[in-house]
Specification:
Elements: H1 2-5, H2 8-27, H3 31-35, H4 48-75, H5 78-97, E1 144-145, E2 162-169, E3 181-189, E4 195-203
Antiparallel strand pairs: 1-2, 2-3, 3-4
Bound molecules: calcium ion (CA) (2 copies).
């Protein structure tokens, strides 16, 4: 009788050992693997639905933050446009003011056109010259171009700007005869379409 039970003892012992191994291994499994055993999630983390809801809420919050800060990012470039427009306006005004008053004014403006004994003033506009050979202030009237440097080349970094020039008699603004002063107006349009206007007077002295 004893001999008939002997083969079962090692099996029972081995089975008991396997169960202890399984229990021990399960207790040391990583969290993710423990979930596969159907253990409760209530006290160990978030459910899948909770994670999906949290991700969706984060996406909405991020979209709101981006939309809130984006206008400020665009507006922060405005000072740069204004600064470059001012540089262009000043540069063009200095260039134009450095020319003689009228086509009939001799170099150095030593004689006034239109005065007694002097040549008659020619008037507003180019006198048959091309852009590169303008020699008096009103030759620039009606000009509209991408900003160029002294050599006539478009200024690097300013390709998207447009400079327009208007020259008109405006002696009355200064209490002079109308033909004794010209108002030079330089309008710079920046890449976003913003308009920057600068003006100066050149007198017939
Ligand atoms: Ca001229
Ligand atoms: Ca002229």
């Amino acid at each position: 009788m004893t001999a008939s039970f002997r083969p079962l003892v090692p099996f029972i012992l081995r089975q008991a050992q396997d169960e202890r191994d399984l229990t021990t291994s399960r207790n040391h499994l990583p969290f993710a693997l423990s979930l596969s055993k159907g253990e409760s999630l209530g006290h160990q983390g978030f459910t899948l639905i909770e994670l999906v809801v949290a991700i969706a809420a984060s996406g909405v919050l991020m979209a709101l933050l981006v939309s809130a800060f984006a206008p400020g990012t665009i507006q922060s470039t405005d000072p740069l446009f204004s600064l470059r427009a001012a540089e262009l306006g000043q540069s063009y005004l200095e260039d134009i003011l450095g020319r003689r008053y009228d086509e009939a004014s001799p170099p150095g403006n030593r004689t006034r056109c239109g005065e007694a004994g002097g040549p008659a003033c020619v008037g507003i506009g180019p006198d048959g010259e091309a852009r590169g050979t303008y020699d008096d202030a009103d030759d620039f009237d009606g000009l509209s171009e991408a900003p160029v440097d002294a050599s006539g080349a478009v200024r690097p970094g300013y390709e998207a700007y447009v400079v327009a020039v208007d020259v008109a008699y405006a002696g009355g603004d200064l209490g002079l005869a109308a033909n004794d002063a010209k108002r030079i107006t330089v309008t710079v349009t920046d890449p976003r379409g913003g308009s920057h206007v600068y003006a100066a007077y050149k007198t017939n002295f």
